[in-house]
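User: I'm preparing a small set of examples for a lab meeting where we compare how different chains pack in three dimensions. I only have the primary sequence for this one, and I'd like the structure in token form so I can line it up with the others. Please keep the answer compact; I'll paste it straight into my notes.
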Amino acid sequence: MSTPTFSPGLAGVTAGVTAISEVDADRNKLTYRGYDVHDLVEHTKFDEVAHLMLLGKLPTKAELDAFIARTAAQREVSPAVYELFRKFPADANCMDVLRAGVAIEALFDPDAHKDTPEAHLQKSLRLYAKIPTLVVNGYRILKGMEPVKPSPTLPHSENFWHMLAGGAPNEFFVTTVDATQILYAEHGFNASTFASRVTVSTLSDIYSGTVSAIGTLKGNLHGGANEAAMEMLLEIGEATKADAYIRDALAKKKKIMGFGHREYKHGDERAKIVKTFVVELSKRLNEPKWLEISNIVEGVMLKEKNLYPNLDFPVASSYYMMKLPVELYTPIFVMSRITGWCAHMMEQLANNRIIRPHNEYNGPKGLTVPPISARK
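Assistant: Understood. Below is the structure token output for the 376-residue chain.
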């Protein structure tokens, strides 16, 4: 029997097989079920990509209409969720609030513990429908506002803007959020997706897998990087300070959030796509500051560390220019990634084996237990 190979962080380890997405690191290319994300951003809306993730194919017009109608009708959440949200401290982390909301919703889902493919799909569709409601109304309640009703008819991104801002949404803002939702939807065996697969591999339920994934995505080395990147840009404040700020941070061995990616050594194509939206937002809003700061930061990071921005970096400034609350950046990520998580959990459950890797022990051996009076 061969000795298992140890790889810190499971770097380079193939932990499973999936038909959901492929990261081609050599060509910096990402595909969802065979479709290049460039084409998906250019030619589809996010509801179409959600259909692709959850139902395995791009929808026809009739299928898309039925999908939007089916999910939009399930956007309302239990009043018990809001009752609990009102008891949370005003400074609660929005990811913690969202995680709690998902856990409570599980208690009211009649299919929560049913273990059939149809039940798994139904739970996935409900989560896709309800998470934007939990995101927006969790935030509103923390800010002392009343929850608002989701639209029973609008598509995904339009409904999000309707709930968050009210009134008719800015069309380009909707397009921008839709593009980021497409690009955030799925990315192979990333930490949160793998956490969700590990959870359901024990034959736990999809809600539990989602709670595991939300807790994992919260970390700054994963989904929380978009919020951390914007906080850094705000701290820099002016383009004239950007170069010195980054060089000083690097000299102090600080991690610059939003740069580098284990899968992409020559740049994240998703970041390049979102950068085009940042440029356009800067022009339309006559707000060039964040683009100017970002360009300087990117230049220093490439020169000094040979690191390129990942998706989180341009998303941060694009969301800020659209006046999205910084504390919602990672929950908005969840609104998208829930489709990838659920696709992976359904795939795991369809051909399941519990995920239980080997570990290498590096602690002491051969110790004897001394009397309690002799212990130090």
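A couple of notes for your slides: Residues 34-171+181-218+330-350 form a domain with the Citrate Synthase; domain 1 fold (CATH 1.10.580.10). The mean pLDDT is 94.

User: Perfect, thanks.
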